[in-house]
Design goal:
The complex is a heterodimer of chains A (138) and B (106). With 138 residues, chain A is mainly alpha-helical. Chain A is built from three helices and no strands. Classes of the chains: A mainly alpha (138), B mainly alpha (106).
Chain lengths: 138, 106
């Protein structure tokens, strides 16, 4: 009924966290440059946290957007107040909240866990030594 | 059916992302869009399967047709969104060059 709202709410929080992280990373980088310290650090062998969080935010926004369309398709979301048809009836509202707390939370967990696995694998891939250039055919 | 169509769209988008020569076409956008939606519909499918059991895999023809229509519409909407983002961000500067050309010709 409105399960995508849980993911949308998580997306808002993650986007804000990614922005804060990006600002602090930029600040740290500029401090390093000011001190003329070597920029190559451990962080460069991993994706920066701001980028990792932005990937999660994009997954959540993308999913929430397309699921919102599905809910419009089924007549559960309408373009006029209160936007959710389930809000018109207390019984439907209770059902909607139950759906959000079960299906909605499960959706958000699936996306977040998949993202965590992706980022773990991405870090392992970045730690790999670069592949040797292939020899030209004789 | 919607989940299946979205998963196929996500797989094709991922293959295109892997084959990319550069990021000028922003191939990552449809990837995150379709994978995000697929994962979320997977959660929905788990609950539906828990409720219906094996019946979940034998939907009525009318439901399947409606779901397929929805799935294709979702893919179309995702691709439209990708195009809009691509044209607004304009990484190759094609839109900007075209607008400047039009402005200069007036």
């Amino acid at each position: 009924m409105a399960c995508f709202l849980v993911s949308a709410a998580e997306a808002v929080v993650v986007t804000a966290a990614a922005q804060i992280m990006k600002n602090s990373e930029m600040k740290a980088d500029s401090q390093k440059l000011a001190k003329k310290a070597a920029v190559e650090t451990k962080q460069e062998k991993h994706l920066p946290w701001s980028k990792k969080l932005m990937i999660l935010a994009q997954l959540l926004w993308g999913g929430a957007f397309l699921l919102c369309f599905e809910h419009i398709w089924h007549g559960e979301v309408v373009p006029w107040f209160p936007f959710l048809t389930a809000m018109n009836d207390p019984g439907d509202t209770a059902e909607m909240l139950h759906e959000m707390s079960t299906i909605g939370v499960t959706m958000a967990i699936i996306v977040t866990v998949t993202w965590a696995i992706m980022m773990f694998v991405a870090d392992r891939i970045m730690e790999r030594p670069d592949a040797k250039p292939q020899k030209a055919a004789a | 059916m919607t989940l299946l169509i979205c998963v196929f769209a996500a797989i094709i988008a991922t293959i295109k992302w892997y084959q990319r020569k550069d990021d000028s076409m922003m191939p990552g956008v449809p990837c995150v869009l379709f994978w995000g939606a697929s994962l979320m519909w997977l959660g929905d499918a788990i609950f539906e399967y828990a409720e219906l059991g094996a019946e979940y895999f034998t939907p009525a023809a009318e439901d399947m047709l409606n779901d397929a229509f929805l799935g294709l519409s979702v893919v179309a909407l995702g691709l439209i969104l990708w195009l809009v983002i691509l044209l607004i961000k304009d990484p190759k500067g094609v839109v900007k060059a075209s607008l400047r050309k039009k402005a200069a010709s007036k």
